[in-house]
Amino acid sequence: MQASIPQTETNCILVPTDRGMQVIDVESIIRIQSISNYSKLIFKNGRSLVVAKVLRWFEERLSMYNFLRIHRAHLVNGRCMRGFNKAQCIEVELTNGEKLKVARRKRNGFLQVVEGMGV
């Protein structure tokens, strides 16, 4: 008999913090911001957490959960995007009301991924 893993456990990542390892539910993250060699995780409940990992570390682990690198300093949860404006520069609006610009070099890749997601 095969043991089933609850869905909530499979959507979690282990993140090293100053107090040891912390289990974080991927769905609770709205975006991650790069701060030099640190990353700031912003959660749906308004909290934030700064960890000593670079943004690329999160990008590699969260790409399968619809996280998109829109800028050298921003990784956003695709499920937390309220919409985006394609005028002169693409601007993403998140569910918490924040608006972030998509970098010129990331624009084409962003549009391809978003079209594939059906947003």
Short overview:
The chain has 119 residues and is an alpha+beta fold.
Run of helices and strands: HEEEEEHEEEEEH
CATH top level assignment: Mainly Beta
The major sheet is characterized as: 5 strands, antiparallel
Full CATH superfamily name: LytTr DNA-binding domain
Give the CA-CA distance, first to last residue: 39 Å
In terms of structural class, how would the helical and strand content be classed?
alpha+beta
CATH topology: the name is OB fold (Dihydrolipoamide Acetyltransferase, E2P)
Low-confidence sequence ranges: 1-8
Mean pLDDT: 87
Widest sheet: strand ordering:
5-4-3-7-6
Q: Radius of gyration over alpha carbons?
A: 15 Å
Level-2 CATH architecture: Beta Barrel
Beta content = 35-45%
How large is the count of helical segments? 3
In total, how many domains does the architecture comprise? 1
Structure write-up:
- This protein is α+β, with helices and mostly antiparallel strands and 119 residues long.
- The protein has a single domain, classed as LytTr DNA-binding domain (OB fold (Dihydrolipoamide Acetyltransferase, E2P)), CATH 2.40.50.
- It has 3 helices and 10 strands, in the order H-E-E-E-E-E-H-E-E-E-E-E-H.
- The chain has helices spanning 7-10, 55-62, 107-117, and strands at residues 12-17, 20-25, 29-35, 38-43, 48-51, 67-71, 74-77, 81-85, 91-94, 99-101.
- The strands form 3 sheets. It has a 5-stranded antiparallel beta sheet. Strands 8-9-10 form a 3-stranded antiparallel beta sheet, with no helix packed on it. The chain has a two-stranded antiparallel ribbon with strand order 1-2.
- A hairpin with a 2-residue loop joins strand 6 and strand 7 (74-77).
- The N and C termini lie far apart (39 Å).
- The model is unreliable at 1-8 (pLDDT under 50).
